[in-house]
Amino acid sequence: MSDYYKPIRGSSYNYKGKHFKLSRSKIDLFIECPRCFYIDNKLGIKRPPGYPFALNSAVDFLLKKEFDVLRKTGETHKLIERYGVDARPVAHEKLNEWRENFKGVKVFHKETGFTITGAIDDLWINSKNEYIVVDYKATSKNEEIVELNKKWQDSYKRQMEIYQWLLRNNGLVVSNTGYFVYCNGRTDVEKFDGKLEFDITLIPYTGDDSWLEETLFQIKEVLEKDTIPQPGNDCDFCAYRKAVKNALL
Predict the structure, then answer these.
(1) Tens-digit pLDDT profile for residues 156-171
(2) What's the pLDDT score for residue 232?
(3) DSSP bridge pairs for 149
(4) Which structural domain, as residue segments, surrounds residue 140?
(5) Minimal CB count within 10 Å: which of 28, 125, 148, 186?
(6) Global confidence as pTM
(7) What would the pLDDT profile of 80-105 be if each residue is shown by its tens digit?
(8) What is the 3-state secondary structure (H, E, C) of the chain?
(9) Residues 83 and 198 in one domain
(10) Sequence-distant (≥ 6) Cβ neighbours of residue 177 within 8 angstroms
(11) Co-location of 90 and 195 in the same domain
């Protein structure tokens, strides 16, 4: 077994364990595949994770540093100005905590008993004193990225909506419109010269978090059962497990 992947989670982190929390990524896993979600959070056997993208993390870190400089001075950013957006980075007292993995923004959902969590990338504010959720994305595609029109980007939209819901339930007035700062690594430059160049676009998204409450009750119902739910329609992990089972019969 590798040092990176530990399939068995400690029981205190499973459903009804004292450390169990329902993260933004777990909610997305439930939507993708209820079976994998159940195996993970009820039975305590984690999916093999995707390996971390260190370059993406570096882009996130550098963007946070760049916007934090302006946060201290109360200035806006040239990207915000270029797109004519009514916004500036805001210095909220809890921003550092809300950004931190394994802490993030927290809400106790009394009706289900879940503690919902999610770590945001950035927080802006507009002239109406509405908070704006901002998420950073990094990739390298040949085409210009100006909208979220791919099916696999639906999870990005849900991510934005969950963050908006979390902040609203922490007492903030949150704009329905959030923004993705999308950094697209260029491959059309003549030479590398030891540096990557990015085209950066600002993509607005109008969120609707009304689906989340119902989803929380669906998650609660699934976790309370002793039967494993059906897999998601497009779950590669379940397809793999099924193929292996058939091959070993």
Answers:
(1) 999 999 999 999 999 9
(2) 94
(3) none
(4) 60-104+121-209
(5) 186
(6) 0.93
(7) 999 999 999 999 999 999 999 889 99
(8) CCCCCCCECCHHHCCCCCCCCEEHHHHHHHHHCHHHHHHHHCCCECCCCCCCCHHHHHHHHHHHHHHHHHHHHCCCCHHHHHCCCCCEECCCCCHHHHHCCCCCEEEEECCCCEEEEECCCEEEECCCCCEEEEEEEEECCCCCCCCCCCHHHHHHHHHHHHHHHHHHCCCCCECCEEEEEEEEECCCCCCCCCCCCEEEEEEEEECCCCHHHHHHHHHHHHHHCCCCCCCCCCCHHHHHHHHHHHHHC
(9) yes
(10) 132, 204, 205, 206, 207
(11) yes
In this prediction, residue 247 carries a pLDDT of 96
Per-residue pLDDT, averaged over 120-129, amounts to 97
Domain for residue 94, yes or no? yes
Same domain, residue pair 70 and 148: yes
What the block records as the tokens of 124 is 């802006």
Residue 1 has pLDDT above 70, yes or no: no
Under a CB-based contact definition with an 8 Å cutoff, are residues 115 and 102 in contact? no
Same domain, 196 and 83: yes
Residue 217, amino acid = F
Match 């499973």 to its residue by tokens. Answer: 14
Q: How confident is the model at residue 52 (pLDDT cuts 50, 70, 90)?
A: low
Specify the pLDDT at position 22: 97
Number of domains in the chain: 2
**91/135 same-domain check:** yes
182 with 94, same domain?
yes
**Pairing relationship of beta strands 131-139 and 177-185 according to DSSP bridges:** parallel
pLDDT band at 201, cuts 50/70/90?
very high
